[in-house]
Amino acid sequence: MGNEDGAATDWLDKVERAFNFACHAKEAFTKGNIETKKKIAMALGSNWTLMDKKLRVSPSKWLVPIEKGYPALEREYFRFEPIKNKVSTAKNAMLESIKQ
After folding, report:
1. What is the tens place of the pLDDT at every residue in 61-97?
2. Helices (H), strands (E): how many in the chain?
3. Residue 92 phi/psi, 5° resolution?
4. pTM value?
C-alpha cells in the first residue's frame, strides 16, 4: 500500500467517523450517561464559556469546514424545494376536497 492509499484510507475513515457522529450524536446525548455526554460535548468543541446566559464554544477543527460550507449547501437544498404560491395552494385545496 502506497502513501497515497494510506492517506485516502485515513481521510475516508475520518469522514466516516464524522458522518456517524453527526447521525447518532443527538440520540446518544439524549439517552447517554454523563460520560457519554461529556465525550460528545468535547468532540464538538472546546473553551466552553457561559456569558450573559449564552453558551459559547470554540468549534473543533473538523466542524469549521462544515460551518463555512453550510450556507451554500442550504441554498442548494432550498433550490429543490417546491415553490409555494397561490396557484399551487389552490390546486392542493382542490385535490384535498377530491380525496375526501
Report:
1. 888 887 888 888 888 888 876 666 555 666 667 667 6
2. 4, 2
3. -60, -40
4. 0.52
